[in-house]
Specification:
Distance between the termini: 22 Å
Order of helices and strands: HHH
Mean pLDDT: 92
Number of strands: 0
Oligomer: single chain
């Protein structure tokens, strides 16, 4: 199965067009396992690999 949310994969575009991406900002994670910060920071770092 294959699906596409958008051809524009920039984080800025995704935050502006998908509320669930913007909502990740400020959602805290356990600092022991995710010292990088909130869910948004973690997901963006993974996304941009």
């Amino acid at each position: 199965m294959s699906w596409i949310l958008s051809r524009d994969k920039s984080w800025q575009f995704l935050q502006q067009n998908f509320s669930w991406v913007a909502d990740m900002r400020g959602v805290l994670q356990d600092p022991v396992h995710h010292a990088e910060g909130d869910v948004s920071i973690h997901t963006r770092a993974y996304w941009q690999r």
